[in-house]
Specification:
Catalytic activity (chains A, B): (1S,2R)-1-C-(indol-3-yl)glycerol 3-phosphate + L-serine = D-glyceraldehyde 3-phosphate + L-tryptophan + H2O
Number of helices of chain A: 19
Largest interface: A-B, 47 and 47 residues
InterPro entries (chains A, B): Trp_synth_b-like (IPR006316), Trp_synth_b_CS (IPR006653), Trp_synth_beta/beta-like (IPR023026), TrpB-like_PALP (IPR001926), TrpB-like_PALP_sf (IPR036052)
Largest sheet of chain A: 7 strands, mixed
Family (chains A, B): Belongs to the TrpB family.
Strand order of the largest sheet of chain A: 1-4-5-15-10-11-14
Shape of chain A: globular
CATH class of the largest domain in chain A: Alpha Beta
Oligomer: homodimer
EC number (chains A, B): 4.2.1.20
CATH topology of the largest domain in chain A: Rossmann fold
Organism (chains A, B): Dentiradicibacter hellwigii
Chain lengths: 454, 454
């Protein structure tokens, strides 16, 4: 019986992360402060440890993974690379489809790859408590898990509407020992002000970030952690692609094309950057691998946004970064399920896209759920709505192979399972979800909020 | 870095299940009909395919696993055997603790091991539809998954109170294409009668079984499937222990004691019977392995029940079987969370216990959740409440090793994850759960419902 899973021994967990900054044609542009000058590290040092800030700005190609981090990775890594043979059969495609299953982590997604590293560096810096925000709950769960592993207290500001609608994500964080507050909360000035203006404020990710940052900035023993967008987050996630490359060697195969969902960009970066390293060095045995970021049509920052300086958060508190953005006050419609709602894309991903070194595609929502259900029917696993975006793109590619007869090798990042997203599947089955495409004028309008830079 | 996971290649998925009936000191007692005579196979043939009935009565030691079943097993099997090194460290025990992680199946528990086999045999017999019941939803999910894999329609009668309280288990079944009805339903005479008597009937497992069996018995293209108790279910689950033995060889270790949760008995049978095979043959290198069934103190069929003939279902429709039972109308208190609520224990498990070839222990509810949280804090994974019973017993054993200084090797069956049981964790954290121990008189009273046999 042929093996469909390519499993590395734990001794093969990579020893270094890959830093794509070393291989960019031009150096990454620095974040800028409100004065238009490069943001000073000391501004960030109030909320991030030095080791993280160094990684954020490093141009070293290989950065060692501390042994205590690898020891935690060992609880679920290496994650499996799996041949989706039943999906291929269902599609009748000559393509070979593989997925990297990041849903096997205890928190159910790829997010702990960076949460664990961030918890470690903070613990080493003498920090006792981490604050963070969470919307749907995936990042908050991951940080709660990671904090527990390194003995840090974790406080999660959870957008109030999610806090009320997704009580099981909250329970999960509490089981790992985290404190979870509905945001806006009474814990911070930002929260109290918001509640004073509107006691029924349902919260937003921007507000939750502001609460978490306010608390971290005010306390010496407390730092803040972010789950996407920034360079160090992309760096930590490269363990995904690095493992996948080793596993493709075991499988005696190699992808022609790689798909990963793209919201803030960390799961795409994690999967694609290690393959980009080969592309930059002339290709794998001379062959370039196509790297495709898959974003929701209802939040199309790469495919329809502008490459410009913008704030990282919705409220305009952070330094500004050069990235593809729809404008920081862009708000995806309520019909949109799940994650990938970020207004921009990671500066590193944006730069690669701007320089035409990677591709991007936007997929409509209903087609992503249709793909997720096809995957569940053939491969068993019920995927997270975010992952369904990559599955959709992989299926479309496999169907093109069926037409052309090309036996391409397709890889996608199964970023997580959907066990805490069954409410979205319910809404899909009951017809409550819709596709949504922005009129050009609406995007132009939201881009008017971009800050003016020199 | 030491490996904590012992992963078999997929080519090592066992080719045969182990049938413990071949190694019992005396043959298993047959189920009896209402007349006190052995139940006739033709009575059962209306709802089960021949291949399943043959397995139910077989005394062959090794029964081949059909290749199409192994090919579905391959979607998640072999499941990992994992050394719980961080749990050992937390306890400060010299014991080595291992767990077999059955939570990696797409449905999140060990239940698909038999659901897939049952779906296959029914499909081979020309059956087009399976009916079954589900309480908490684990079995219904597994049957929905398995039906989808073999192109069978699946109808699940889900106890109404669960249908309403656990909508995400229902969504999961629907995602795999199953029809799910709140029981009592309008689909069957049993359901209509129950609703006529009480339109607000909240349902019970007994009622849901009756609905599923009624539909299966009435339709030639429809069969019924049961997820525990029966011999063929125990048989299919032995893949767990068979894999574990191969993995212990890789680990160059061997368990001194094995713990598994025990409700109906399938997860205990699946893990323990293959080790019993060695015990029956004189031991592994002459050493006997202790095999311990762990049941809830609030439903203590092995430790406080009677070894007697009783009905398999709460309503008294099935043939009667010799087993440890609390009486088929025994009802665990509402404070009890999760599964393991069955009034009896599998006849095979019961016979082994009666003959003192295995052990049993009952654990109180709060201590099981405490153990589950310790496991989540150390190993990351949030376990199902059923699994927490085995974890509790394993931790208690490891703490005894700490006192005695013995470096025992402990194995337990992590039967599933708790992603759909966070409501129970919530109730635990908020202090809504309680321990409950029956007064002797209450058990004596419930035992009065036992049928009179020759």
């Amino acid at each position: 019986m042929e093996s469909l899973r390519f499993v590395l021994p734990q001794s093969e967990i990579p020893t270094h992360w890959y830093n794509v900054a070393a291989d960019l044609p031009t150096p990454p542009l620095p974040p800028l402060g409100a004065d238009g000058q490069p943001a000073k590290p000391e501004q960030m040092a109030a909320i991030f440890p030095t080791a993280i800030l160094e990684q954020e700005m490093s141009s070293e190609r290989w950065i060692p993974i501390p042994q205590p981090v690898r020891e935690i990775y060992r609880l679920w890594r290496p994650s499996p690379l799996v041949r989706a043979a039943r999906l291929e059969q269902m599609l009748g495609t000559p393509a070979r489809i593989y997925y990297k299953n990041e849903g096997v982590s205890p928190a159910g997604s790829h997010k702990p790859n960076t949460a664990v590293a961030q918890a470690y560096y903070n613990q080493q810096a003498g920090i006792r408590r981490i604050t963070t925000e969470t919307g749907a709950g995936q990042w908050g769960s991951s940080m709660a898990l990671a904090g527990q592993m390194f003995g840090l207290d974790v406080r999660v500001y959870m957008v109030k509407v999610s806090y009320e609608q997704k009580p099981y994500r909250r329970s999960m964080m509490q089981t790992w020992g985290a404190e979870v507050f509905a945001s806006p909360s009474e814990m911070t000035q930002t929260g109290r002000d918001a509640l004073a203006r509107d006691p029924n404020n349902q919260g937003s990710l921007g507000l939750a970030i502001s609460e978490a940052v306010e608390e971290a900035a005010a306390r010496a023993d407390t730092n803040y952690a972010l789950g996407s967008v920034l360079n160090h987050v992309a760096l930590h996630q490269t363990i995904i692609g690095l493992e996948a490359k080793k596993q493709f060697e075991l499988a005696e195969d190699w992808p022609d094309v790689v798909f990963a969902p793209c919201g803030g960009g960390s799961s795409f970066a994690g999967m694609a950057f290690p393959f980009f390293a080969d592309n930059a060095a002339g290709g794998h045995h001379g062959k370039q691998v196509r790297l495709v970021a898959v974003e929701p049509a209802s939040c199309p920052s790469l495919t329809r946004g502008k490459y410009a300086y913008d704030f990282g958060d919705a409220s305009g508190f952070t330094p500004i970064m050069k990235m593809y953005t729809l404008g920081h006050d862009f708000m995806p419609p309520g019909i949109h399920a799940g994650g990938l709602r970020y207004h921009g894309a990671s500066p590193l991903v944006s730069q690669l896209y701007h320089e035409k070194l990677i591709e991007a595609v936007a997929v409509p929502q209903l087609a992503t759920f249709e793909a997720g259900v096809m995957f569940a029917h053939s491969e068993g696993i019920i995927p997270a709505p975010e992952s369904c975006h990559a599955i959709r793109a992989a299926i479309d590619e496999a169907l093109r192979c069926k037409e052309s007869g090309e036996p391409k090798t397709i890889l996608f990042n199964l970023t997580g399972h959907g066990h805490f997203d069954m409410g979205s599947y319910d809404r899909y089955f009951s017809g409550e979800l819709e596709d949504f495409s922005y009129p050009e004028a609406a995007i132009e309008k939201s881009l008017k909020c971009l800050p003016q830079v020199g």
